[in-house]
TrEMBL record, chain A:
Gene3D superfamilies: 3.30.70.20, 3.30.70.3340, Sulfite Reductase Hemoprotein, domain 1. SUPFAM superfamilies: 4Fe-4S ferredoxins, Nitrite and sulphite reductase 4Fe-4S domain-like, Nitrite/Sulfite reductase N-terminal domain-like. Keywords: 4Fe-4S, Iron, Iron-sulfur, Metal-binding, Oxidoreductase. One of its GO terms (molecular function) is sulfite reductase (ferredoxin) activity. This is Dissimilatory-type sulfite reductase subunit beta. The gene is dsrB. Its EC number is 1.8.99.5.
TrEMBL record, chain B:
One of its GO terms (biological process) is tRNA wobble position uridine thiolation. It is found in: Cytoplasm. This is TusE/DsrC/DsvC family sulfur relay protein. It comes from Candidatus Desulfobia pelagia. Gene3D superfamilies: 3.30.1420.10, DsrC-like protein, C-terminal domain.
Length: 376, 106
């Protein structure tokens, strides 16, 4: 029976969890599960896994916009039906993988994908730039300082050649978050694009009563800039409200997350910061956090040329200078951050100097440094 | 913002049906209104115990209680609270009690 609003608990099914992943294994994966011997990347976007049974699983990875229509999903299903017995998978970076069980089936699949224009670009493997992990932006969220889908499209268009090739020293992970909630991977990516505010919140004394739990707004501030006050609303009534010490506010927007009467989005104030040098893998060096190198770039819709240029510049300087297997963070730490700024031509600003609680450990307690163009 | 008329009282509500003016406008007509839209049959003493606990805590502390505190003060485990309020303590019980809409990454 269909859902009955008058009896919402009747025939209700709950706590069944996701379907077991094994149900959707291609037969070759199911048969060889846990028996893989080795793999090869035969060309950008194409992988071959060899099993100890002698079976091969060929994977074709294609880029996807993450935000996609049901029509596009159906088109992917059609391709999977025609070439892969109806099986496909998504990667953790929102690429799509089509798997076939013999080399002979790879080229027809590639031809089919190529015949559909630019919908299914093959790539994203090895030492290149794969998909950008990103967030909601102006499509769906209420706290963003920039857009997600738009910036991602603009950046990927410019660095598309790195998606379809494997010419970099190591893989470069680019991520975007539209506010510093950092949903996704911004804090640990080779190049991270982050939406930032530059103005303190506005407080709506008319709406704050009944809309906000004031102690939550106060406790949400990492710098203790929000204080409870008695304020006067537009009707002249005295209401319990809050005050923001603008000198202490660093525009994180946490208070707006907790209290809808404290909006801070601003078209001129908001923009993008660029962080670099993060990684999550343990190979060679330990995982790293990304570090702020460009404090602000404007929101220039719809193509964000400043952000695109900044990402491309970092990528190209890294590609030219880093050693094989060296991630962006490993490269920057080997040559020294002062050299990173010099080589990339990024102006070093006071905004990159940490001033939050544990900041001391990030300053240089050594005489070891290199003279660079930044030291006058 | 919409205004809802129920049982002779009118209430300012947001798009999710929470009172925008909070407990200023809260009364028993609001409770019967929420009861109907939340699929709650009859208001039992247990329902009232939860609503009163939420209101008392909010008046005293200015915030809604954490779920563990609500369970401790009422003596109802979370499972029982869901049985009383199918939408849960936030969307169900807090709405009925006239507390602000829960915020954050929910």
């Amino acid at each position: 029976m269909g859902y009955d609003p008058a009896n919402p608990m009747v025939d209700r099914i709950t706590d069944i969890g996701p379907p077991h992943f094994e149900q959707f294994f291609p037969p070759v994966v199911k048969k060889n599960y846990g028996k893989w011997l080795y793999h090869e990347i035969t060309q950008p976007g194409v992988l071959m896994h060899k099993s100890e049974t002698g079976d091969e699983c060929w994977t074709v990875r294609v880029g996807a916009a993450r935000l996609i229509s049901i029509e596009l999903i159906r088109e992917m299903c059609d391709i999977a039906d025609a070439h892969c017995d109806g099986y496909l998978r998504w990667t953790t970076r929102n690429n799509v993988e089509f798997m076939v069980d013999s080399k002979a089936k790879v080229q027809p699949l590639l031809d089919e994908l190529a015949s559909r224009g630019n919908k299914f670009p093959v790539g994203g493997t090895g030492a290149g730039v794969t998909n950008i992990v990103h967030t909601q932006g102006w499509v769906h969220c209420h706290t963003p300082a920039t857009d997600a889908s738009g910036v991602v499209k603009a950046v990927m268009d410019e660095i598309f050649d790195y998606f379809t090739s494997m010419t970099l020293p190591a893989q470069v992970r680019v991520a975007l978050a539209c506010c510093l909630n950092m949903c996704g991977a911004v804090h640990a990516s080779d190049i991270a694009i982050l939406g930032v505010h530059r103005k303190p919140p506005m407080i709506d004394h008319d709406a704050i009563t009944g809309l906000c739990e004031l102690p939550l707004a106060i406790a949400s501030c990492p710098l203790g800039a929000v204080k409870p006050v008695k304020a006067t609303n537009s009707k002249g009534e005295e209401v319990k409200s809050v005050k923001v010490n603008a000198d202490r506010c660093m525009f994180c927007g946490n208070c707006y997350t907790m209290c809808p009467a404290m909006p801070l989005a601003d078209p001129e104030g908001d923009g993008i910061a660029i962080l670099v040098g993060g990684k999550v893998s343990n190979s060679r060096s330990m995982p790293k956090f990304s570090k702020l190198v460009i404090p602000f770039l404007p929101n220039t819709t719809p193509r964000w040329p400043e952000t695109v240029a900044a990402v491309k510049n970092i990528l190209e300087v890294y590609a030219k200078d880093a050693r094989k297997y060296e991630r962006v963070g490993e490269w920057a730490e080997r040559i020294g951050w002062e050299k990173f700024f010099e080589k990339t031509g990024i102006p070093f600003t006071i905004k990159s100097v940490d001033d939050y609680r544990l900041a001391y450990d990030t300053w240089r307690t050594s005489t070891q440094f290199k003279f660079t163009s930044h030291i006058k | 913002m919409a205004t809802i008329e129920h049982g002779g009282s009118s209430f300012d509500v947001d798009e999710d049906g929470f009172l925008t003016k909070g407990m200023e406008e809260w009364n028993e007509h609001w409770v019967t209104y929420v009861k109907d839209i939340e699929g709650i049959g009859d208001m039992t003493d247990e329902h009232w115990k939860v609503v009163n606990a939420l209101q008392d805590y909010y008046k005293k502390n200015g915030i809604a209680p954490m779920v563990r505190i609500l369970s401790k003060t009422t003596g109802f485990p979370l499972k029982r609270i869901y049985e009383l309020f199918p939408s849960g303590p936030g969307k169900g019980a807090c709405k009925m009690a006239g507390l602000p809409k829960p915020t954050g990454c929910v």
